[in-house]
Amino acid sequence: MTVAQPSAVEIGLMSGRAGYVLKANDRGAFTVASPTLYPHMWSWDAGFVALGIATVSVPRALSELRSLLSGQWATGMIPHILFHSPSDYFPGPERWRTQVAAARPAGVLTSGICQPPIHVIALSRILHDARRKGGADQELAEEFVRETFDAWLAWHSYLATARDPYSYGLVEIHHGWESGMDDSPRWDAPYANVRVGAMPPFVRADLAHVADPSQRPSDAEYAKYLWLLEQKVHARYDDAVYRATGDFVMGDVLVSALLAAASDLLADMGEELGIGGGASGGVEQSRAIARRFRTGVLRSVNPETGLARDLDLRTGTWLDVESAAGFAPLLCGGDDALTRRQRDLLLGPRWCGHSRLRWPVVPSVSPASPAFREQTYWRGPQWPVLNWLMAWALNRSGEQEAANQLRLAGLSQLVDCDFAEYYQPVTGETLGSRDQSWTAAIALDFLAARRPAQRRPVRWLTSELPRITPTQRAADLAGDRPPRTRGPATTPEMPRTP
Ligand code: 2M8
């Protein structure tokens, strides 16, 4: 499938409006994940947000990460939400009751679980950008890495120890929310065994912010999410106690692959800056973590499908689901033949090349899978951040052409400037929250990945720019303006970056 490339005008509008969205969602020291549905700081959202902001302001990108670290627990865990001010978001701090946990941070309210470790990948990206800019930006970024190296190492070590006590090489998650893919069919089999016990009543707040409840997880799913939260509270957020008493203990391949990739990048930065040295230093520790989890991810691959599998650690069963997490090996590398096989699979007819897709970008579940649902949250819709991750991984493995295809298709998908939380993969319609920070951030990063000669500085905007309506876009495509080049053959290349 070929994709119409965004025109220069569309690119200008997109970068302006993406900058505007991030500025509007900026609360000073941190960025809300979205203005209505997610009015707090989310952990992995913050990583993507920071790398997007870096294309505009390196200092502001670094302060995003610094702000996230202010919520780090004494165990090293970076919590999945930092609550800075009261809101109608549910479950809020009164439900998480993290005061029962000895390891909680002082001075900031947080949730009690975590999310995928994308942060050091973002940091290495920011450092790369800062070095390209040089001067004060470079000094600031290098100083930030020196200052925070141990905190990132503590975060990775927490995942590698408290969440992999038996050294399987797979990070254990205790809640579907920890995977970032809340209601993904990855977790259907384990959730089927979760029986909701006695817990306080609840009223969902999320449904007030979406047009159609079928786009969100069901009430029955939500009850299970809250039941697991209750079990974490009963375990006083002690991982060993939860492991023995909780209903959901899964080895997550995507989290594991991100941990491996991030650990390698942390080691690289340590080496470059001369920190974390010595045989027992942070660089060596990071390399060991990377090796263990890369091995764990590669071992999980189903030789028939070529996809990685999560492991139900309570039953010892592999979870074979055609979700985008199956491409975890692309993120951590380590097997060139598998990388090529996964590249072809990802771009092929079961995935991005599926004939029903409006845009050839990574869907959360294969449209060819019986589990595929067009508009239900993580059961099929497209999440720009997933597409970014796969493009980043392909680029890192030297698969620039494939990476570029995903990047261009991803940009075309975002051209209406809604920056939605997720996209209906068949119609291309925007779903969930609008003005989602991480989506705007991805747009900025994708735009900045154009050839350096074509790079134009993005500016913060203080006033709203017009969106490109579907009618305007249809008129454009129908020929109301000069025809644009089609197809990836003439597209700008993505430079190879960390
Ligand atoms: C979604 O998750 C939150 C719970 O953490 C929710 O549905 O309330 C997920 O898409 C998650 O991956 C994301 O980080 C979060 C904020 O964008 O929303």
* Arithmetic mean pLDDT: 91
The main sheet orders its strands as: 4-5-6-7
Characterize the biggest β-sheet: 4 strands, antiparallel
Number of discrete helical segments: 17
Number of strands: 9
**Radius of gyration, Cα only, in angstroms?**
21 Å
Q: Key terms for this structure?
A:
three-stranded antiparallel β-sheet; four-stranded antiparallel β-sheet; 44% helix; 9 strands; disordered C terminus; binds (2R)-3-hydroxy-2-(alpha-D-mannopyranosyloxy)propanoic acid; mainly alpha; 498 residues
Note down, in words, how this protein is organized.
The protein contains 17 helices and 9 strands. With 498 residues, it is mainly alpha-helical. The chain has a 4-stranded antiparallel beta sheet with strand order 4-5-6-7. Helix 5 (119-133) runs antiparallel to helix 6 (135-161) and helix 14 packs antiparallel against helix 15 (400-413).
List the helices and strands and how they pair.
Elements: H1 8-24, E1 41-42, H2 43-53, H3 58-69, E2 81-83, H4 93-96, E3 109-110, H5 119-133, H6 135-161, E4 171-173, H7 188-192, H8 219-234, H9 239-245, E5 250-252, H10 253-273, H11 282-299, E6 310-312, E7 317-319, H12 328-332, H13 336-347, H14 384-396, H15 400-413, E8 422-423, E9 430-431, H16 437-448, H17 470-480
Helix pairs in contact: 1-16, 2-3, 2-5, 2-16, 3-5, 3-6, 5-6, 5-10, 6-10, 6-11, 10-11, 14-15
The structure holds (2R)-3-hydroxy-2-(alpha-D-mannopyranosyloxy)propanoic acid.
